[in-house]
Structures are given as C-alpha cells and as structure tokens.
Amino acid sequence: MIATSRDVLGWVWLLALVACAAAMVDPGVRQAREDAEQGRPEAAAIQLEALRERYPGDFDVHLELGVVYYKLARKALDEDRQGDYSRYIGMALDEVVEAARLDPESPGPHTWMGIISAYQDNLEGALRDFKNARRLSPRNPVNYLNLAQIYVYLGELSRARRYISKAHRMGARGAFVDIVESLAAWRQGDLVEARDLFDQAYALDPEEVNRWDEAPVDEPIQSFEDFTGYCCSNHTCGPHMGKGCERVRLAVKERELRDETLRRELVMEMERRRKLKKIYEGRKDLEIEIESPAAER
Predict the structure, then answer these.
(1) Dihedral of alpha carbons 8, 11, 13, 15, sign
(2) Of all helices (H) and strands (E), which one includes residue 148?
(3) Which residue among 76, 129, 163, 233 has the highest number of C-beta atoms inside a 10 angstrom radius?
(4) Which domains, ranges and CATH numbers included, belong to the chain?
(5) How many helices (H) and strands (E) would you count in the chain?
(6) What per-residue string of b and e applies to 146-159 under the rule 16 or more CB within 10 Å gives b?
(7) Segment 133-188, tens digit of pLDDT
(8) pTM of the shown model
(9) How far apart are CA 129 and CA 138, in angstroms?
(10) What element of type H or E holds 241?
C-alpha cells in the first residue's frame, strides 16, 4: 500500500500501535514457551489464552497455543484420559489452522500439522504436511529432516537418506541431523553406527536430544540405551521401529485408542481439511496440498 501525504501521520501512528502491541505480546509468548518446555503446559495455556483474548489476530499466539494444546493432548493420552486427549488435540488443530489463516505463507503451521499427523499415526498425512512446509520454505533444511524421519518410519531408507543428504548440502548441522541418521542406521540394523551417531548428537546438544520428539521425557535421554528405550516405549516411535526394538530386546508400545476416540480423530481431520481448503482455495500459487496424493510419496 502506498500512503498519500494526507495518510502519512495516520499510517505512522498505526505502525507505532502495531509495534507496541507486538512488544507486549512477545514476552508473554516467550514466557509461555518456557513454561511449556519446563513441564508446565497448563500454566502456558492459561497465559496464552489470555493473550489470545487481547490479541485475537496475533499469529504467534495462536501457533504457540496450538503447540501447548498438543503437549497437553500427549500428556492426557499418556495418562489414558482419552476424552481430554480428544478435546486438546482438537483445540490444537483449531489454533494451528487459525495461524495458517492469519499467515497462509508461513511454513510453521504446516510443520506442526505434520507433527500432529505423525503423532496420530498418520504418516501419509505427515508427509503431506511436511511437504507443504517445504514448499513454503524450500531453503530450510529442517523441512527435509522432518521428511527424512517420516521416511525412516515408513522403512523407505533410500529416500530418507536422500533427504538427509539434501539437508547436509543446505548446511544442516546439529544434534537433530545426527538423531535422524541414528534412527536410519538403527532401522537398518547397524547398531554400531546408530550408537556412534547418537553419541555425536548428545555431545553436540543434550537439550536438543531430549526435545527431538517434541514430547515430555520422564527420564533424561543420556545414552543410546535411553534413546532406544524412549522410542520403543512411545507409540509415536516404537511401532515404526519394531525390528529395531527387537534387536535391542525392547517391547514396543502400540497406539491403543477406543473406537470413539478414533472416530473423533476422523471428524477432526475432515474439519481441518475443510478449513484449509477455504484458506488456500484462492492461493493456488502456494501449491498447498490438502489431500494426501494416493500414488506419489
């Protein structure tokens, strides 16, 4: 928009108001994020809900609230509170989709939709969501690492390694790279390489190792044994690493949901697609996929 001379003072005043509001929101979002990361998602949700009331059009507030609701959903399911799980996962999707509506060109909401899809054992949906994030931010190597991890879970290790190589060529460094490579080596049966890669990841960044699955970790992950134990006892990882878990003599935790909970997940997915179609129907230039392609991965 180009402001005429008559509009300049009003435009400057508006920018000042926006800057002031952003300055007020950001510390609250940062504090809520810190609360969630330190195991206080309930406190984070209360703070973010208050911010949402004051700033209903703030992208960061909606996205961070979606993340917090997702963490509350995971906690509820771990405690077999399936009614609370359904409620929180629905709220998480509502907030993340609203963030996408506020900024259709941001990859962040699609990344979190992918994380939620993977948590719901919808790996094809996670591929779709992570590919959407890649379309919106093709120079971010994390998008390729997220895709690689899903391909590891699907057992498509050659594809996974191509995406890992792509992330390396784009400059990806850090513990998450080594974690994904460790998963691939473990899935293939090379426990020596998997252990070496895990040890390298932990030496680089122990905190990132403990955050790699975006989930609460009851006991710190400090060794390859801790890593495999966490994966095999977690339904987001273990069922996709079944043979790997057998090799290290660990039982796999399967995803066990009541029929009503599964039905609610299907309804939520239909509603999410409906909302996304409405958001992106006028933005064909972004090439966002709403349905997972049946034939092409």
Answers:
(1) negative
(2) helix 141-154
(3) 129
(4) 27-106+259-286 (1.25.40), 173-255 (no CATH)
(5) 14, 0
(6) bbbbbbbbbeebeb
(7) 999 999 999 999 999 999 999 999 999 999 999 999 998 888 999 999 999 999 99
(8) 0.88
(9) 13
(10) none
